[in-house]
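cron nightly-structures :: item 1 of 1
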Amino acid sequence: MNHPSLPSLLGVFAHPDDESLLAGGVLAQHHAAGARTAVVTATWAPESRRAPELADALAVLGAGAPRLLGYGDARNAEAAPSRPRLVDAPLDEVIGRLVAHIRDFRPDIVVTHDALGQLTGHPDHVRTHQIALLAVEAAGLAHLHPEAGPPWQPAALYAATHPESGVGLLRPLLEGVGKKVLAVPDSYVTTSVDVTPWADVKWRAILAHRGEVARERPLPGILARLPEFDRAQMINTEHFTRLSPGPEKGAPNRLTV
């Protein structure tokens, strides 16, 4: 994602605050370069307490208004009491709704969770990764979800991830509040972005999620209690794995590895 003229970027994340924690730096970077950016959030209803905080965070990042799918959180019944949980919702329904956002926004790049579910393996993270993979491919095929608008094929899909060598202080901090830590082999990372120039913006976006900052176990609260130097070590680099959707242009007429 380091490129002299930065492409448009759509984040697809499970919860309010995932966008700021996992890709706040690249969202701010792309916005500062004049690229279009937006975020789709799979869980929490528009009328929930976290929606205004998400709106504030996206305003800081320059990523427009919230695009909330409004499903329930697998671990918090408060998120959307009248809607099914994301992990229980019909798969094709959720894919179709995300396809509509992809075709509406027409991003060059989509960024989502990794297959492990982002450090802690939250089931909503895992489900969002699965849905994003399927929706990015479906968005480019006119016969799939025709009601969602004209087809649009993003050029690349990136999974935000954490390499084993980069977990550092996060491991004891997360384990200290009873969370597991799942990281990928370093070789799985294809792109690491130094977001130091946009770290202040990223941190302000994280702080906009006030409810999570005030709590002990969520990552925003953990980060807020750290010395500034330690916190910078954790938020100043963002790691991604490139997952290319659609047919490869000019690919040979054989399978390659």
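cron nightly-structures :: done
Residues 35 and 249 are 24 Å apart (CA to CA).
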